[in-house]
Amino acid sequence: FRIPDVKEPLLRSSLEDNQAGQRVEFAPQPPTSRRYGRYDVALLLRQLDQRESAKDDRAPRDARPAVLPKSAPTYARAKRAEQFGDLPKAEQYFRKEIEQQGPSWQSAVKDLSMLLNRLGRASEAIALLEFYRDKFDNTRPVDNLRANFYLKLSKFDTAAGIFRQLQSGADSRSSLTLIRQEAFCAFAQSDFGTALALLDKQIGRAHV
């Protein structure tokens, strides 16, 4: 997609490094175009990402390997295979845990979807999640995965709708992240006015 010509180096860099990895082409600013407000959408995205990264850097990190569940041997085999890079075997055991409705089958659904996405099979990952979604008591993690996989497939409108729905009932920090994700979907569709309004909304909430 094309955006107006930008002269500021930081802003230009922020647009080139946008979250979806989309190719950005710079076009001349039309004489009659109006600016989108006080903040530029892409610069806000960069600033908000830097703020979140700073928060993550302050958080304690636990580098210990995940403890594999002894009560779910099939799922444990899948996780072990994944840890050692044997992805076909990991997929096989994840599917087996799901088919057998083992004690960790819901975790296996989410892990298998992430594995499929990692292998470039995002459409399969979405189909898997949507097939089992109604069997989850808490669908928020499933929907978050769905939205991100739709984002990877450049289905921005669908992803934005899910991010919008997830904002209902979310805690304050999650809500801010979801608003930014929805804003990026608008940005990716060149709907800069909506993106700006959402980012202004996020900044307002962040300072409450």
Characteristics:
disordered N terminus, mainly alpha, 208 residues
Descriptive overview:
This protein has 208 residues and is mostly helical. The chain is built from 10 helices and 2 strands, in the order βαβααααααααα. It has helices at 9-16, 41-58, 73-83, 87-99, 105-118, 122-132, 140-152, 156-166, 172-188, 192-206, and strands spanning 2-4, 25-27. The protein has a two-stranded parallel ribbon with strand order 1-2. β1, α1 (9-16) and β2 (25-27) form a beta-alpha-beta unit. α5 (105-118) runs parallel beside α7 and α9 (172-188) runs antiparallel to α10 (192-206). The radius of gyration is 20 Å and the shape is elongated. It starts with a strand and ends with a helix.
